[in-house]
Amino acid sequence: MNNLALMAGVLVVMALAYQLGLTRSKAVVGDGQRLHSRPGYYGLLVALWCGLPALLLLLLWGVFGSDIVQFLVVQQLPAETAAFSDREMVLQMRRIGALAAGNNINDPQQFELAAAAQQARLETIGRLTVLASMAVAAVLGLVVSRRQITPHMRARNHIERVIMVALALSSGVAILTTIGIVLSMIGEAVNFFRFISPADFFFGTTWNPRFSTSGDTGQGEFGLLPLLWGTLMVSSIALLVAIPLGLMTAIYMAEYAPPSLRNVAKPVIEVLAGIPTIVYGFFALIVIGPFLSGLGEVVGISIRTTSALTAGLVMGIMIIPFVSSLSDDIITQVPKALRDGALGLGATKSETIRQVVLPAALPGIVGAFLLAASRAIGETMIVVLAAGNNPVLHANPFEAVSTITVTIVNQLTGDMDFASPQSLVAFALGLTLFVITLGLNVIALLIVRRYRQQYE
Amino acid sequence: MNTITQASRRERLATIERSLASRHRREKRFRRLGLAAVVTGMVLVLILFASILMRGLPAFWQASFHLDIHFDPEIVDVSERPSREAGESEADFRERDLIWLSEVGRVNWQQLIDNALEEALGEEIEPRQARDLRALVTSAERRILRDRFIEDQSMLGETHTIKLLASANVDVWLKGNIDRDLPDSQQQLSAQTREWADRLYAEGVITNAFSTALFLNTDSRSSPASAGLAGAFMGSLFMMLIVMVLSVPIGVASAIYLEEFAPKNRLTDLIEININNLAAVPSIVFGLLGAAIFIGYLRLPLSAPLVGGLVLTLMTLPTIIIATRASLRSIPNSIRQAALGIGASRVQTVFHHVLPLALPGILTGSILGVAQALGETAPLLLIGMNAFVSNIPSSPIDQASALPVQIYLWQGNELRNFFEARTSAAIIVLLALMLSLNALAIWLRKKFETRW
Q1: Would you call B394 an interface residue with chain A, using a CB distance cutoff of 8 Å?
Q2: Which residue of A has its CA nearest to B274?
Q3: A413 and A299 in one domain?
């Protein structure tokens, strides 16, 4: 909270600096002279020179400050603590930190009190130093940059360069995210493969991760295949539902529907695509599951309430808007000349669609299907609620299954100690999921892009 | 020669005419198939909404008692609340006040409720029936009496009509959400309690009143009838604020860079492919990223809206970038050329002319992105936001839940009969929020849509 107040203070000073720069720029311009840039740019320049270095200092202190203090405090601890393990050390430092913050702890030792006093002192010194250097930097930046203002100074060009750097840095965030995903997944997955060999993971047919708390010394079995199979089964059912319905919807909307219907139905479909998946999951659990199970009883097959079929069916409903809006875009991109040609030869509308429009749009539509498949594979909440979590290899869609995403949730929720294969396996599974969906996406995007170029 | 072609032509025409009927039939069939697909989709959605509304709407009303509570001085036997004496330090006074508060906390408030119920039932309750009696009012309600008394101590010795929530099982029984013909062994409530509940309901002591608890309380384990959404709502609100503050400026900035300034080279190509791919990465992968980096590496607190907000920011970023770029691309080049022509710099052109024109599209895309983040559940489970939290979070680093996660937690509650409706009610609240965000976005787009 203190840092927030400091930042607000810096902003106030920056506003002041802006005014100073503004008046200065108006003052330096003599008769018959013209400023290179508009006065506001000079104000902005002074404000940036005044505020940015100070904010940078604050940021550096925020990131490294506590580490430096901790390091100095550790140096002062008595010799016996050198033998502490990492874990004990963390606990020790937490006790000292609590003391330094003015809280009481049980049974404080003499050396802890001393260390706490030192930590508190160091923190105060550090804070004051940072505050002082921020003030110096702000004043220095203000004075120097204000002095540099002359009518010939290219203030606008300087400001624009700063803006460009800021814009470019922002677009780097997306790259950083991808790098972060890949590195964190690979890093933790490598840790996992120290416990379990990759061959056992990728080709194992049994999933039975025994939890270490049960006192079992065995590591458990981490075979991916039952989960992969479950994922494929649920996604295939979803696509079997979504592709015909979605494609026919798209065709009807693009070719037959009157504009009035289109104007209503398009936003409705968009809104549907925005319904959270947890809602679909709950719907599967309390409506579709019991319905299918009742239906099964009538027909004479046993269908579990939570099964691959339940989850797949509802997931299919979820993807319909996705498939239909993608296919709709692609179908409307097919040039009108193709349609007119076919209609002119005497083909009926449906013949035109089936024999001319669809073949022409096929690559794009296939791309849309692949995107839908990747979404189905990565979908989590519906399967968590409605697939039954039964990681066993079987081919019966009426039985419960488990998927990669469900297992990630099960293995990682509530347990943040990344030291056992039981929780690390989530990252190996995540990496598998990431690679599968990435592959599908890349292929799909390539196909769609090439398709677009074809008709542009 | 002529006659031959004439004949073959007639023959061809005849063939075509013969096939025409079946071709037109096929045309009609195809068209109906399309309409059927549209209708099927709509019907499915209708079933979804209808089933959730049907289950959820009744949960906005909850069985509540209106009891005449007599604040009996013999039971509420506490000393006077200390007032600050002259020359007393603030800390000393607060300590004395705390002692008084804990004295009030030790009062047997349940006894007041029991007495009022006995009065309302008009019969002597034997000690062996105490359990049956206490099953009527949900357990957290005695705290309401305590709080009312702390607020206003003049109630001592008086009788006030106070609204208290019935227990979850009484609510289920009165709404008929449990089969009334089930034998005693399968009922949640004893025969005695059921009889009392029915009688009090008939007499109007219990009514079905609008449930403010659903909106004002946090989740509760010991007293399911008073579980509410306030904590989850605040958690979601904090996350949405973080998402808006971070992802909109960063997303718009990077879209401007890529669309207006970036040189066409390998690197920008890579960024572009990368963003398209990120938009299609499953949300749970972002959760893994958050668990590994924000919690495992940076040691940020578990279950905090701060971490949730950061994860959702990374997740919404591609959506906002793509929407902003599309919006910028739709601004015709003549605008840019006109600005450049009268001497504006490229930065001025973009910020003074292109960006204001693209703003409606950017706004729409950003709102849709935020709405999508509001409904996301899976990544939040991986960063510990499914922990049980009984306080309303007051800052983004407090422990908190989120609306969709609360739905997930409630649907798994063992008290199925009660929480099925409660979960549906929570879904209605979430959907109402999301749909209004979506409606706002669509309205904005309609209002400011420009055709070039």
Answers
A1: no
A2: A175
A3: yes
